[in-house]
Structures are given as structure tokens and as C-alpha cells.
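Bench notes, bay 3.
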Amino acid sequence: MISEKSVVIFSKNSCCMSHTIKTLFLDFGVNPTIYELDEITRGKEIEQALAQLGCSPTVPVVFIGGQLVGGANQVMSLHLNRSLIPMLKRAGALWL
């Protein structure tokens, strides 16, 4: 689910922070693969696996270039310190 895509977001439609992170990537022009855990068949299993990886809360969770970035706090920190765009470029998700 993760290794074949440049950006993967695990999300829930009911989560406002998930909406914020998805909007951030879409505003950059990134086309992330988004898995809505409250809509897919194995959503609960995936959420448990994310928790085992240390993701708390379990949504949103972002992977870039197959690597776990983390949740909303980690993504926003990368954005504020100007590291997110270069990371997206290296993963082939952005061509600015």
C-alpha cells in the first residue's frame, strides 16, 4: 500500500486534522494516495498496524517515498521549517 506510491495518507473522513493535511498536499499540487480508514474494508486492521508503528493518533498518518513521516504535527513541522517541499521533490511527488 505504501511502497509503490510517492505520497500515501491514511485518513478518516470524520477527522478535521486529516482534512487539513489532505488539503495541504493537494494545494501543493501533490496527488496523494488516500486511504479513508472509516470507509475501507480493512480499515480497523490498518489502524491497528499504524498504532503498532507508534502512530498516535492513528490518523492522519503520512508516508512520503515509502518512509513514515508521521501525523499532522510532524507534517506541519516539516512544512514550517521548509523541509516538506524538498522531501516531496525527492520522492517524485512534486516538480516545482
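Next record in the batch:
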Amino acid sequence: MYFTATLTTLHVPHRAAVCGWIVNYCSMAKPRGFEFWRSTLKGARYVVAPMVEQSELAWRLLSRRHGAELCYTPMLHAQVFVRDANYRRENLYNEVHQEDRPLITQFCANDPEVFIQAALLAQDYCDAIDLNLGCPQMIAKRGHYGVFLQDEWDLLEKMIKLADEKLSVPITCKIRVFPEIEKTVKYAKMLEKAGCQLLTVHGRTKDQKGALTGIASWKHIKAVREAVNIPVFANGNIQHLSDVQCCMEETGVQGVMSAEGNLHNPALFEGRSPPVWEMAEEYLEAVGKHPPCSLSYVRAHIFKLWHHTLQIHQDLREELAKAKNVAGIAEVNRQLKQRCQEEMAKDESEWTRTGLPFPHWICQPYVRPPPKDPNAENGQKASETKAVSVKRALEDSDGPNDSLSKNKQKKKARNPHKNFCPELKPKYIKCEQCGNPKGNKCVFNLCRGCCKRKAFKEVADCPGHGLKFKTKALKQSKSDTGGGLTNGNPNSQTVSTAAHDPL
């Protein structure tokens, strides 16, 4: 109030100077670095990772009850967050809860201005804003965000610096490492210099995903921790509480983040491995208390929790997939619990047939099998197996579809003309403003979103996107002037039209 009243009485040059001073003051006033970690984040050591469609409010509250000290929202798309009020409500505004703090909101973005707009809309509902620089999935590659920005240092420096200046909460980053430790350290120091106040380092490269996930490098994380003067969280190789303790001792980080380990055992940070139904029932109760929660989120969590058991009870796996509501999922959970309790009454020797460290009804991590070495199969020569895929083998597959996955073979069966070769796929021309594919018939050479904004601003038409702002304006003009006739002069219609034509 005081600043507003003062600014209105100042001349423009003085007003600009005061505005700059206010920005600098706000930047200095918010907690930074270790002060931010100690005061705002309360020295959090046990952290639940941002997980798309998985770290929603109900799951965060469950994790906090079982040892988690800091949670992240699911990754949110900055551009959608800015333009879609429903998206904001469903993914952040409606998920506010007093027990769900401290909380960091994560965005993916590749445009500084859009990122800042999204962060300004979110900053009052969280304790910090995180920029996702670690997502390695194909959707991130197509959208040009996540780990696929890690070579664009000028852009990232601009985004972080702008966020540090404009936001009232600190800016943090989550990254993946480069193969070279030296380059990873240089990358981290660049982000720190730009204004990043806390860095989460996932010790895997952008190519380590899916069947090639492999082991995260704690050496990279340790090197970053020793090189920067801001708090660092480690991510990768966390399956038990003992892994958390080993990681902190080996790397010297302030906290450890868990994603998949947390999904399979929400009590990981307590050092417990409870029966699956205990966690499932508690989660379903939280879902009931904090609606609305998407059914797909709930189903995905129950699939993860019961992963090992559902390998045995395939019929209930089908029932879970077909469940139409939360009550249906709860019923499948009840049946799984009943079957497991019946198994518990049997001879203990039958429990160990699964090859798991614990009985299958106990919360425990899922370990991905390593990719098969094609050179080790059937004594084949390396030259003969060089082109063998590390993906699962396809049974009885001979012919032109040998190299396609089962999913692609199904698509090929439905549409024999479908093309999976990247070189032969049509190349889309990018929008001149945002980089998304432009409309083929757009008069402005833009995507639909950018075209709509431009056409609205300039009161223009775009037949390619079906936009008729100019046409509607002319119709409105005619109706306002009684069909364009004034004092019986038929030529006045032309004058009226020209006067209202902005183009």
C-alpha cells in the first residue's frame, strides 16, 4: 500500500528507479541458499520427488505421515498453467492443505516469459518454484523441455536469473548429469551463479532410462556438492532407508530424493516395510478425504503398491484395470488383502518361491532387470548380434515386422500403411513464435494458440484455423449502425466498414 501510494506521486524516471529498487529489495528479502533450506524447508532431508500424475495431494499427505519432510507437486506445464484456469485449479489451487508444507511446485518450460508468468501464478501456494531440467522422456524431447535443455546454457541462465529477480519465493532446479564430471560441475555452477538456491542432482544421464536406467553415479553428485555453495539433494539408487544414509555419507548432500522407491513403499523414510494393504488402505482413505482425485492416479498407485502380488494374481490385475471408480479399486484391494492373508497361513517355504527378499505382500522396491547382453546369447558372434535390440524378444516374429515392438505391431495390424521410420515421417514446420508445429493453412504461419492471440489483437481472420474476429467485428459494426445506412445514404455503409477495419 505504501509503495503504491508513493509510486503514483513520482515522475516516470523516478518511478522506474523505485520499481527497480523494489525488485532488488524483494530479491534480497527472500531467504537464499542454506538459510532457505534451514528456515523455509526446515532442514528437510527426506524428499518425495515430483512425479507426473503420481505426487498429488493424497499421496503427498500419505508420504508425510511416514517420514517425508518435503514434497514436490507433479511436474506442471508452464504454458498450459498460464492459459488454462481449470488446469491451475485442478493441479495446484484445489490441492492446498495446511499439512502439505513445505511444498515446491515444479514447472517444465522453455520460454523465460511464460515460465515467469506461470511461477507468479503459483508462488503464493508453495514455498519455492522448481524448474525441471531432468525429464528424459520422449514427450519432453518433443516439447523441448526437461533434460533436453541441458545444452542451452544461455537460455537457462536467462530463465533462472529472471525468476530470481521477479519471484517472491526462491527458484530451484532439478538436473541430470553429463557423462563427464567436469562438465556436470560447470553446469551446476552456472545455475548457481544465475540464481538457483537449491539443486537436486539425479545421478543419471539423459540416456539412462527405461531398460537402460542402470545405476546412478554418486561420484557426480559428490563433485557437484563440493563445488557449489547452495544446498544439494541427491536422487538415484534409493530403495531403502539404509541407502539414504549411505548416500548422505558418501556425497555430503543435505537431503535425498526418492521417486520409484517411494511409490513402491511410502514408508521408506521410516525404515519400515509394512504390508501392502496397510499403505493401500491408508492411501484410499486419504483419497476419500481430499477429493477430487483422478481415478487414473489412484489406479496407478495401487498397481505400483501391489506390483509383486499382481504378478501372481493375474485375474485381480484385470479387475483392477477395469475398475470404474474408487469403490471398485477398494474392492480389488480387499480381495488382494484376503488372498495374501490366506497365503500367510500356509507353510513359510511357499513364500520364497517368488525370489523376492520379502514375501510379495510386503512393500519392497521393484528392481528393473538389466538389459540382456546380445553377445552372451547362444554364443553368437558380435557381428551377428550387433543390431539386436535390448528390448524384450518377440516370439515367433519373422518377416518385415521383426524390428517392431509388440505395441507397434498391433498398430501395424490395424493400419498396414502406418509408417514408423523417423526419416519418412512428415516434417512439421515450426510456429514462428513458440516452436510448436504451425497450422498448414494458417495465414500467419503460426500454431493455433499463437494465431488466435495475434488474430484477436489485430482483429483479423484466419480461415485455416477457423478464426473470424474481423468478420464478427464487421457484422457487429453493421448492426450498430442499422445495417450500415445512415440518413438514407447507401454509401455510408462503406465508410462505416472502413472506419472499423483495423487492418
